[in-house]
Design brief:
mainly alpha
């Protein structure tokens, strides 16, 4: 395997683009090479196979879509109440909208994991790791609610992100006078997170 970290990162990001646009069936080394603008055969020098490419896309997406540490640090100066949880959920939604391609690729990874046992195991572990990390963050930050609050927020926000990125018109006007997605984020937090 070739060891050029910058080229590997560019190929993985090209894989994200292909995965989001064409789905897992379109994710070929040739398509990744074309997306990255490199000679045909380049990707095959960096990845042992398609499963290796998918695992590296998974790892890259979890870095690429992670919260900005400066934003987290700035938010953590605020009172540890429901409004802070709302700010974190709004940041999550903003990141999803800003990097729509990344989130669509994550959704494609979920679907592909249902077809590939090896990917299912590694992808489940990485997503569960993110959930566990979110619960630990919530506890250590002293935010209202507990692990159940975080799990329900996770499920609600995942649903909102899925609808907003794939079928945005579905939610328009569902709750009269509630903006999509911002107002729905506020409603989710108000419904799930206890006061105080």
């Amino acid at each position: 395997m070739v060891s050029n970290p910058e080229r590997r990162a560019a190929l993985v990001d090209a894989g994200v683009e292909v995965l989001a646009r064409e789905g897992a069936r379109g994710l070929t080394f040739r398509a990744v090479d074309a997306e990255a603008g490199v000679p045909v055969g380049t990707a095959s020098n960096y990845f042992t196979g398609r499963d290796d490419l998918l695992r590296q896309i998974d790892a890259r997406l979890h870095v690429r879509l992670a919260p900005d540490p400066e934003v987290v640090s700035r938010l953590m100066t605020r009172a540890k109440d429901r409004s802070l949880v709302t700010a974190f959920m709004r940041d999550l939604m903003d990141r999803a909208v800003r990097d729509r391609t990344g989130y669509l690729a994550l959704l494609e990874m979920r679907l592909e994991a249902t077809r590939r046992p090896g990917l299912l195991a590694s992808y489940t572990a990485s997503v569960r790791g993110d959930l566990d990390e979110g619960m630990e963050f919530h506890r250590s930050a002293g935010l209202p609610g507990g692990d159940e609050t975080v799990v329900v927020l996770y499920l609600a926000m995942l649903g909102l992100i899925l609808e907003h990125l794939t079928l945005p018109g579905v939610l328009d006007g569902a709750l009269p006078g509630v903006d999509v997605p911002e107002g729905l984020v506020d409603r989710i937090v108000a419904t799930v997170v206890p006061e105080g």
